[in-house]
Amino acid sequence: MTLSPTAPEVGTAPLLSAQGLYVTFPGRHGGPPARAVDGVDLDIRPGEIVALVGESGCGKTTLARSLLGLVEPTAGRVAFDGRPLEYSGRSLKAYRKRVQLVLQDPSGSLNPRHTVYDAVAEGLRIHGFAGDERTAVAEALSRAGLRPPERFFLRYPHELSGGQRQRVVIAGALVLEPELLVADEPVASLDASVRGEILALLLRLRTELGLSALVVTHDLGLAWNIADRVAVMYLGRIVETGPVEQVLTTPRHPYTQALLSVLPEAPGTPIVLTGEPPDPSRVPSGCRFHARCQVLAGGAAEAAGVADACRGRDLPVLSGDGRSQVACHWAASHAPLGGAGNRATRHSPLGDGPQGN
C-alpha cells in the first residue's frame, strides 16, 4: 500500500473513527464518576497524521487507549475501516495487528532480557506468522533505520542508545505491517538531537508505506513538525481542531492560545493559566474552560455579550471530519484572524522554519 505523502482531502473515508465516545471511571469514595473522555468524535484518514495535544490529565491517553481497544468506551463506538470495533478476544487480536502502539519510554517497552531480534519477532509469534521470521525482522529493523539489521539481532536494550531503542520499538510495530500507529509521546524521553531523527522516520514511513498515525503529545512544536491535523483536548473533550498550520498560526480557542503563548519561541506575552484543570468528576457547567479563561477574566467575553453563555451554556461536541472547528462561545462571535498559509512554504510561529511533509 503506497499513498501520497501529502495529507488526504477532507471527505476521504476515515480509516479509524470515534463517534460520540465517552469513557468514565468510578468516582472516589462513591462520588460521581470521572468523565475521562466526555464526548469525542475523531476521524483519522488513510495516510494522515493527527496530533492530539493538551495538558497532562486532559484525557488524551485514555482516548488513545480506547481507540486501541485497551479501554472499552462507556458509550459511543470506535470503527476501523468502516466496521465497528468488537471487544471479543479474537476480534481485538486481529484489530491490534492492523493498529499498533508505540509507547513513550523505549526502555520500559523492551524486556531487558530479550535481544533485539526477539523483541521485534514477538508480535510475529503472538499472531502466528507463517512466513520467514528472520527476513521479516530484518526488513522491519531496516525500515526503522537500524542498518545493517543483522548487526542488531543479538544486542540487548542496554547496549543501545535511546534513539536506537525507540527505533527497535518502532520496528516491533512495523513487523506486523500495520495500517495505523498510535504513538504516545514518541520522543518525550529522547535527547533533542535524536527527536528530529525519529520524527523524520515517522514521516518517511507515512510516505513509503502509507501509514496513518495518531500522535499523542503535549508538545505543540512536535505537532507542528509532524502532523497534518491537530486536535486540542481539554477536560475530556476536543475544543479546537483543524489543519495544523491553521490551528497553530491562528488559534481561536483561548486554551489553544494559552498553550502556544508559553512556548519559548512564541512572540508576545505568555498567558499563564490560573489553577489546575477541574476534576473530571465535576465538569463545570457551560464552557468547561471558563473558570481559567483569560478572555472571560479580562472582560472580552462580556464585551462580546457571551459571558453568560460561557458560564452556563454547554457547547456541542465537535465533529471528527477534519474541518476547522472551535468549541468556544467567544470565538464563535469573532471571525478568525489571518489565514492558514501555504503548507509547502509555511513558517512556524515556534521558530522551526519551513516544514514540508
Identify the CATH class of the domain at 11-81 and 179-348. Answer: Alpha Beta
- By CATH, the topology of the domain at 11-81 and 179-348 is Rossmann fold
Helix content: 25-40%
The percentage of residues in β strands lies in 15-25%
In DSSP terms (H or I, runs of 4 or more residues), the helix count works out at: 14
Give the SSE string: EEEHEEHEHHHHEHEHEEHHHHHEH
Q: CATH architecture of the domain at 11-81 and 179-348, please?
A: 3-Layer(aba) Sandwich
Return residue spans where pLDDT drops below 50 for at least 5 consecutive residues: 1-5, 337-349, 351-357
Query: Ends: how far apart?
Result: 18 Å
**Main pleated sheet:** 7 strands, mixed
- The named CATH superfamily of the domain at 11-81 and 179-348: P-loop containing nucleotide triphosphate hydrolases
**Rg over C-alpha atoms, rounded to the nearest angstrom:** 21 Å
Please give the number of β-strands: 11
**Mean pLDDT reading:** 89
Q: Helices and strands: which structural class? A: alpha/beta
What characteristic shape results from the CA principal axes?
globular
* Major beta sheet, strand line-up: 6-7-8-3-9-10-11
GO molecular function: ATP binding
InterPro entries: AAA+_ATPase (IPR003593), ABC_transp_ATP-bind (IPR050319), ABC_transporter-like_ATP-bd (IPR003439), ABC_transporter-like_CS (IPR017871), Oligopep_ABC_C (IPR013563), P-loop_NTPase (IPR027417)
Domain ABC transporter: 16-260
Keywords: ATP-binding, Nucleotide-binding, Transport
